[in-house]
Specification:
Elements lengths: L2 H9 L6 H13 L4 H14 L3 H12 L13 E6 L7 H11 L3 E6 L9 H5 L11 H11 L1 E5 L6 H12 L6 H15 L3 E8 L8 H17 L3 E8 L7 E2 L1 H12 L5 H17 L6 H13 L2 H12 L9 H4 L5 E6 L4 E6 L1 H11 L15 E4 L6 E2 L4 E7 L3 H11 E4 L11 E3 L4 E3 L6
Parallel strand pairs: 1-2, 1-4, 2-3, 4-5
Antiparallel strand pairs: 5-13, 6-9, 7-11, 8-10, 8-12, 9-11, 13-14
Helix pairs in contact: 1-3, 2-4, 2-8, 4-9, 5-12, 5-14, 9-10, 12-13, 16-17
């Protein structure tokens, strides 16, 4: 079998066999296929696409390129994946609810590369929290505590690391089959029996259109179901930051306030939708409405917050429950950003808020950059709010270039004379058979 034959077949739009795809992934992993030929095949896939069978075969071959976890000894394991967004701290909110319901949380997460930190970077804002767990320790944590959330092992899906690096420099990142295989190979390698996907679309996310985000969600759910997993996906907009805080320790504090009962707005709706979907898939609720009710109960009685403390302490987190937010405070200067005119806030451009947070030190411009856990942006106003000149729009934190970041934030918060129209931002959930709307709570 020759790689040039595979390149020619895909260039002509023909289907690659399971054996050919396995040959390709093995060659990428062991270095026997040079990067220029790998790049040629990636570009052919970008132009010609892959059908569902090819995409599934690529996912499984990538999964099997490295170590996998066998969680079959544990019943009801659940994992979540987000395609990312600005201020997306939903994993930190959702997992304690699932844990409080009796589901077993087993999750390997990545670090952020770009505007803001990933889940692991945020968790490292908690003093003492251990994000590096070897395989034996990971399993022991699940047995003892019912939860383990750690950084991804270098031996997990090594083919994806090589392929993604090439996709990044050959403009082939935005290929639906390649995206789906990249995400799902890692999720299947960690072997949770239930996987809930959070697929964002819009300016501040990887997928720019709702149409493409929905296609991606359907492909990934199908891949997981074909591998025997219980799958669900949530589709929601990401044109503005999710919640108020963008930055690692700042987002941890916002999560804590959420779990104390200070949940509101889009952050609450997105979180409850994901929680409810997990409850339905995990057998804890018959439908989404009952899942929402169970989430509300666990929030009100404090069990979700206690599960949050339990999880963090299980992995070394050091804090006093009565002074949790003081424990995740880091030295940082504060810099307010003021409105320059009267009017209504009609938009908040999430992508630019993320760039401002990165400039302050909350994200990485390149792999290996250090993250400042204190850095970030906390919005003081929301879309629809009426403001007057001189009102504080946001507060910047960190030790970076405040003037440059403030200018970005000022231009990102759009103030106009008239009030904004209500956005079409429905949340949809896919259970593998059909899409349904998650009705917002208007109480």
């Amino acid at each position: 079998m020759k790689i040039t034959d595979l390149i020619k077949k895909k260039k002509l739009g023909e289907e690659l066999s399971t054996e050919e795809i396995r040959f390709f992934v093995k060659g990428v992993s062991d270095g026997t296929i040079p990067e220029y030929q790998t790049s040629a095949l990636l570009m052919a896939v970008w132009f010609q696409g892959m059908n569902r069978e090819e995409t599934f075969d690529l996912t499984i071959a990538m999964r099997d390129s490295g170590d996998t976890l066998d969680l079959s000894e544990f019943p009801d394991t659940i994992d979540k994946h987000s395609t990312g967004g600005i201020g997306d701290k939903l994993s930190l909110i959702v997992l304690p609810f699932w844990l409080a319901s009796g589901l077993i949380v087993a999750k390997m997460s990545g670090r952020g590369l770009g505007f803001t930190g990933g889940t692991i970077d945020k968790l490292e804002s908690v003093p003492g929290y251990q994000t590096s767990l070897d395989r034996d320790t990971f399993f022991e944590h699940i047995r003892r505590f019912g939860v383990a959330v750690a950084g991804q092992s270098e031996s997990l899906v090594p083919a994806d690391k090589k392929l993604y690096a090439l996709r990044d420099v050959t403009e082939t990142v935005d290929s639906l089959p390649l995206i789906a295989a990249s995400i799902m190979s890692k999720k299947l390698a960690t072997a949770a029996s239930t996987i809930v996907l959070d697929v964002k679309y819009g300016e501040g996310s990887f997928m720019k259109t709702r149409k493409n985000a929905k296609k991606l969600a359907e492909i990934m759910v199908e891949i997981g179901k074909n591998d025997g997993r219980r799958m669900g996906a949530l589709l929601s907009p990401m044109d503005r930051p999710l919640g108020r805080a963008v930055g690692n320790a700042l987002e941890i504090k916002e999560v804590h306030r959420f779990l104390k009962g200070e949940a509101e707005g889009d952050l609450k709706e997105n979180a409850f939708a994901l929680i409810a979907a997990g409850f339905v898939l995990g057998g804890k609720a018959d439908d989404l409405e009952r899942g929402r009710q169970l989430a509300a109960e666990l929030l009100e009685n404090g069990k979700a917050r206690q599960s949050f403390y339990h999880w963090l302490r299980a992995q070394g987190g050091c804090f006093d429950e009565d002074n949790f937010e003081e424990a995740v405070s880091y030295p940082a200067a504060e810099y307010p950003v003021y409105a320059e005119k009267d009017g209504y806030i009609t938009a908040i451009h999430g992508l630019n808020i993320g760039i401002a947070a990165m400039e302050l030190g909350a994200g990485r411009k390149k792999l290996g950059d250090a993250i400042d856990p204190a850095a970030g942006v906390v919005l003081q106003k929301d879309i629809g709010d009426r403001v007057r000149s001189g009102d504080i729009l946001a507060v910047l934190y960190g030790n970076g270039d405040f003037a440059a970041a403030a200018e970005i934030v000022q231009k990102s918060v759009i103030i106009e004379d008239g009030a904004p129209q209500e956005a079409n931002d429905e949340i949809e959930i896919f259970n593998g058979d059909r899409w349904e709307y998650f009705e917002k709570d208007h109480d």
